[in-house]
Amino acid sequence: MLQLPKSPPKVNMRVSLEEAYEQCRQITAKYSKTFYLGTRLMSEAKRRAIWAIYVWCRRTDELVDGPEARHTTPETLDEWEARLESLFAGNPIDNLDMALVDTLERFSLEIDPFRDMIEGQRMDLYRDRYQTFEELKLYCYRVAGTVGLMSEAVMGVDPALQTAPWTLEEGVRPTEEAVALGIANQLTNILRDVGEDTRRGRIYLPLDELALFDYTEEDLLNGVIDDRWRALMKFQIQRARKYYATSERGIAALSPDARWPVWSATILYSKILDAIERNGYDVFRQRAYVPGWRKAMCLPVAWLRAQAM
Length: 309
Fold this sequence. Notes:
The chain is an all-alpha fold. The protein has helices at 17-31, 33-39, 44-65, 74-88, 95-106, 112-126, 133-155, 159-162, 175-192, 194-199, 207-212, 217-221, 227-251, 256-278, 292-308.
């Protein structure tokens, strides 16, 4: 369980800043191979920043979903939020924090998306069902849409758009699209992980939509795959793809050096939905994934879209 002193002092780090970022890279590469592939297409400064953000997000998620999650309490998350405040004040607690503090100094990240993500973890402490999609959407924003906001600050906006005469004074910010991409990714995770989540006692598919397709919680627990289930999954996949489509509108507004990696990550992750379809919507006994050769085929497509859009 996370333990923090009431007034965290600055710590004498055991590694250099370069080594801290390298640790973040290794964690990203190990736990999110598809996402990591997209980051390799970024400039060095941007990919290192994204690795640092990813690691903080993963550590936050593991407080509720990790191996020690049974020890996590609301007070644990209070302590983690206090630690977040310390990071934004420039006071890292450990080596991984050091990379994030450096990222915060280099890019104009706001603290609110980080706080909102912690609120998403609070939801997981007391909720294991969602009655409607509107309830689920709030959860998806907090645990994943926030990542879009964090990443947007690192990716940057095309300077040409910010200085165009038809641009609003405050400049172009593809914020809605960044949030939509995070929600699309989280919906994809939910559909991929239905079986795993159900075995852990969690159901993220909206209960009123299960009822709409006459599919019960008992069916879900038993991994029933029939016409009702296939129709329900087609409905869910269609919604996720709509969020991907919304997110794509914002990619053209990003800094030119960010478009290819973001297009790549978007296409690669959305391909998980294709894998679910190829598996006959069996997310109970098969894990949908994108094989390496399919990932390689996506990269030139993403590059072409980055040039044209």
